[in-house]
Amino acid sequence: MKTLTINITILLSVCMLYAQQTPAPAQQGRIAINGAKAHLGNGVVIENSLIIFENGIIEYVGAMNASIDRSGMEIIDAKGQNVYPGFIIPNSTLGLVEIDAVRASDDVSEIGMWNPHIRSLIAYNTESRVVESMRPNGVLIGQITPRGGVLSGKSSVVQFDAWNWEDAVIKTDGGMHMDWPEIFAYGHQHRGENPGLKINDDYNKEIAEIETYFKNAKAHNALGKKGVHLPYEALNGLFSGTTKLFIHVNDEKGIVDAVSFAKAQGVKALTIVGAYEAYKVTGFLKENNISILLQRVHLRPNKSDEDYDLPYKLAKLLIDAGLTVALEASGDMERMNSRNLPFYAGTTVGYGLSKAQALQLITLNAAKILGIEKQYGSLEAGKSATLFISTGDALDMRSNNLTRAFIDGRNISLESHQTKLWKRYSEKYKTP
User: Fold this and answer.
1) Is 364 left (phi over 0), alpha (psi -120 to 50) or beta?
2) What is the pLDDT, as a whole number, of residue 189?
3) Quick check: helix, strand or coil at residue 249?
4) CB neighbourhood size of 182 (10 A)
């Protein structure tokens, strides 16, 4: 019995050690942010602003106005600081994997190639320490996206301060994700093949399989028998317009083929994810009203004959063509790199975009693509008070320093496991 008591005590201690911070309570009373330089996220900047919000909703955004009665409000003096809408990270696996080497903490993908009925939302872990580390950089909202197979499943949009996924969710099952076949593939050395890049001889066959799957799904759903084939039934939203199709594809031909496929199938809304060679077919994408979730800009060119700075200036090329573009951060170490989202946007400023345009890549444009622009993505009256205050430029890693952050008007903590360690060890070598 004594041993059991000791074991239980140790277990509870470990659970407390790794438990998340308590989510912030609902907003109490009205709050006014005075004097900040407000970057609204819609291209507008107000040098000396006043922002008032109550019950999680913005009531007023505009120039400082002394005639507005602020008695009884909590006043935040932000003179000399900057205020921004909360940043949005699309196409993210945050909360689906905690430790890659621990299989029990990995819920990022399911077995099999056809999983349109899989819902990433119910696997989202609000206790994740990785998610917690997003907030000090202003990343407050994310699209939680499954991986693997041809049809990976459905994504949902959440905010990053909640007890559970039910409390976190902003938009439920709004996206369906598909990995488009690659035109070029690497050979399998263990099969005696050349490991270099070669043409994928099965490309057309793989597309035909996708077309057949959609055809069978439509035939099944036309029968009106619900609950018989959940994967097929999960595709219904693509044709009614309640679910957007996100096709992950990078090469020029693949992008054109993917868009043509979606149009032929009657898919109502489509976004291309990755889109490395989208700059070659901007006219086609514009004509078909296709939005873009652009791959991480901190990458090297894919081919030896490409401009050395192509990944950095892709956003500029696509914006200039009139496309709706947002940034994502998938790839190696994507969960950790998600916190660098504002600095990816900042890089695009050095390659041609204005700061207002760069900010839109991770605020209003992202909100539009994810279908949450009526509530989030910009600082406007009637929208959610999801915002933060920074002493410096939030797109610059040297000066991004948050002092306050709010999600739906709730004053959230900016502490994380990493900030606690920083404070702990910054004291270690100080002279007594």
Assistant:
1) alpha
2) 64
3) strand
4) 17
